[in-house]
Design goal:
two-stranded antiparallel ribbon, single chain, elongated, three-stranded antiparallel sheet, alpha+beta
Length: 240
C-alpha cells in the first residue's frame, strides 16, 4: 500500500515489488514474491494486468487519497488519467479510483498455475444483484461493504435474502459439508424463481440452506435416500 501511486497502482514485476517492499531482503526470490501476489489475487485484494506488454498491479477498492489526476503507471488501455467514483460505505459516501472497482472494470488477473496444474481463482466482477462484499485480509480481519443503495437495515436484509454469486453459495455449502452440486442446484433454482420459495420471498438464504440440510432436502441427501428407499424425485420444502 505504501509503494503504490495515487491510483493504487505499481510495477507488477516481482523484482521491482521485492526491491521496494523488502529492500533489505537480498535473498528474497522472485518466485516467493509471485506466490505472495497470487495469494493477494485469490483473496480479491489486488488485480494484476498488462499494459503495453508490461505487468502492473492495481489494488482493489482504492480510496481517493489526494487531488492527483494522473497516475505514474498506466491502466490496461495505456491511459494515465485517474477517474473517481462515489460509493456508499458504512462510513458514508467515499470516492474510489474507478479502475479499482471490480464491477466497474472487470479484469482477468494474471498469474501462473499452481504446481498441481490447477489455476488459481480469478477475481470476478461483481453482479448488479450483489448486496454485500466481504474482504478477508491476511490477518483474519473481515471488512464488509454494501454495494447497493438504501438504508443500512435494508442493505442487511438484502444481503441475507440473496447470495451475490454462485461462488458464495458454494463456499457456504462446503462449510456445511455439502457438495458443490447442492450449491449449483440452489443457485440455479433461486435465480430462476426470483429468490422465492413456494411463492414466498426468501428472507435468509443461509438459514434456508441450513434448514434444508437439517430436514434432508438437499439433492445430495435425497439421492442417498432415494437409493436406499427406491423413491425418486424431490420432496416439498415449502415450510422453509
Amino acid at each position: 500500500m505504501l509503494i503504490c501511486d495515487d491510483a493504487g497502482r505499481y510495477d507488477g514485476r516481482p523484482q521491482m515489488v521485492a526491491s521496494r517492499s523488502y529492500p533489505l531482503r537480498d535473498n528474497l526470490r522472485a518466485k516467493d514474491v509471485v506466490a505472495t501476489l497470487d495469494k493477494l489475487v485469490e483473496a480479491g485484494l489486488i488485480m494484476r494486468y498488462e499494459a503495453n506488454g508490461k505487468p502492473y498491479i492495481q489494488l482493489v477498492k482504492w480510496q481517493k487519497c489526494g487531488k492527483a489526476k494522473t497516475s505514474k503507471f498506466p491502466w490496461i488501455d495505456g491511459s494515465f488519467s485517474i477517474e473517481y467514483e462515489e460509493r456508499e460505505t458504512r462510513d458514508g459516501v467515499k470516492e474510489f479510483i474507478k479502475t479499482s472497482l471490480p464491477h466497474t472494470h472487470p479484469v482477468e488477473t494474471l498469474y501462473p498455475p499452481r504446481s498441481d496444474g490447477v489455476p488459481l481463482k480469478k477475481v470476478e466482477s461483481h453482479t448488479e444483484t450483489e448486496t454485500e462484499t466481504e474482504t478477508v485480509f491476511g490477518d483474519g480481519i473481515r471488512v464488509r461493504e454494501s454495494r447497493m443503495g438504501g438504508t443500512p437495515s435494508t442493505q442487511k436484509n438484502q444481503s441475507k435474502a440473496k447470495a451475490g454469486s454462485l461462488d458464495e453459495i458454494v463456499e457456504f455449502c462446503l462449510s456445511l459439508d455439502l457438495p458443490k452440486n447442492d450449491a449449483e442446484f440452489l443457485w440455479h433454482k433461486w435465480e430462476g424463481c426470483g429468490w422465492r420459495n413456494d411463492g414466498k420471498a426468501i428472507k435468509d438464504w443461509r438459514a434456508t440452506v441450513r434448514s434444508w440440510k437439517a430436514a434432508g432436502y438437499m439433492p445430495s441427501q435425497k439421492s442417498k435416500n432415494d437409493h436406499n428407499s427406491g423413491f425418486k424425485g424431490y420432496g416439498s420444502a415449502s415450510e422453509f
